Structure formats: C-alpha cells, structure tokens
Amino acid sequence: MVDDARRERFESLAVTLIEPLRRYLARRADPTTADDVLAETLLVCWRRLEELPGDPLPWAYRVAANCLANARRGVRRQERLAAKVAVVDPPASVVPGPGDTEAPDLDAALAALRDEDAELLRLWAWEQLTPAEIAEVLDITPNAASIRLHRAREKLRAELGARKGDRPAGHEESDEGSRS
After folding, report:
1. Helical ranges in 27-166 per DSSP H
2. How many domains does the chain have?
3. Which residues 6+ apart lie within 8 Å of 60 measured at CB?
C-alpha cells in the first residue's frame, strides 16, 4: 500500500533526523519547549514528506527554526495577554503560591513533607477544596482523602513544631516575673 511505503520512508528518515534536531533545539530552548518543537517539526516533515530534498537535514533545521520562532511568539502573546488582563481585571486578592508565602517556616515545612502530602495540603488550603473534591482530583475515595488530609495536617503540624523548637502548645516562654 502507498500508506505503508510512506510510513516506512518517514520512519527511516526520522531516525536520521531526530538526534541532530534534538541537539539543535536543546541548544536553543528549554527542554520542554525543545521537545514540543521537535514534535512539531517531525509533524511538518510527515505532512510535507514528498517535498523533502535529497539531504533533508538542513531543510528540517529550517522547519525547526520556524517552529521554534512560532513557539516563542506564542509565549510572548501569552505574556502580553496576561499583562493586559492583570491591568484590566486585576485579581481581587493575591493568593501566595508555592514558595511565595511570607512564612518561611511554612515553606520549609511543606518542602520537608512527601510530595503527596504537600499536594493534599495545597489543594485543601490554597485551592479551598473539600475532601470530596480532593478525592476527585486525586482519583481516590472521599474517605481516603479525609484520612490522608488528616495525616498530612498532623505531619505538617509536627514539622512546624520541630522548626520552632518543638515546644508543646501552651508552654511558650514567658518573661513574666523575671527581673530586668
């Protein structure tokens, strides 16, 4: 069949193009963008397979450069749009995100927890989700979400206590009655 021959031609061609294109893009973009642009470049090569010259690598580099330029323009458009939206319709209040809190002890305590526990707490505290909603996000039962959330809060409480010297509640130091 014609489709089988076309696919075989593309697969043999792709084997020779992928690594050089990957290196080319890795030197010009972050890993995620490089992977996205590589996929887009290979898609263009597939679509225009009949137009490929005898030595397709320089042609593929040009396609990759164009796809990379498109990706960068897209990022700039998104940034401009976000800036316009922030000016026209600023958020009612700014909610701190990871690492943005004004409580370094909290940031450090969250970082010390298992990723799963920290994510549970973020969903509960930052996103204001109920245990049933957290269960839906994490694809677990509501009961499991409640139990895990309870345990995660206990771990966070213990971690915060350890960072403050592990003093039991109600036993804060007092200078009452001391001579100055």
Report:
1. 31-47, 56-88, 104-112, 115-125, 131-138, 142-163
2. 2
3. 17, 20, 21, 41, 45
Do residues 84 and 6 share a domain?
Answer: yes
Q: What is the pTM of this model?
A: 0.48
The pLDDT tens digits for 60-116 are 999 999 999 999 999 999 888 888 777 776 666 555 555 555 667 787 888 888 988
State the Cα–Cα distance between residues 176 and 132, nearest whole angstrom.
47
- Residue 117 sits at the vertex; the CA angle it makes with 169 and 112, to the nearest 5 degrees, is 65
Structural domain of residue 115, as residue ranges?
Answer: 104-163
Contact 55, 15 (CB under 8 A): no
**Interatomic CA distance for residues 118 and 111, integer angstroms:** 7
Tell me the CA distances in angstroms from 134 to 17, 76, 143, 154, 156, one per residue in order: 44, 34, 10, 17, 18
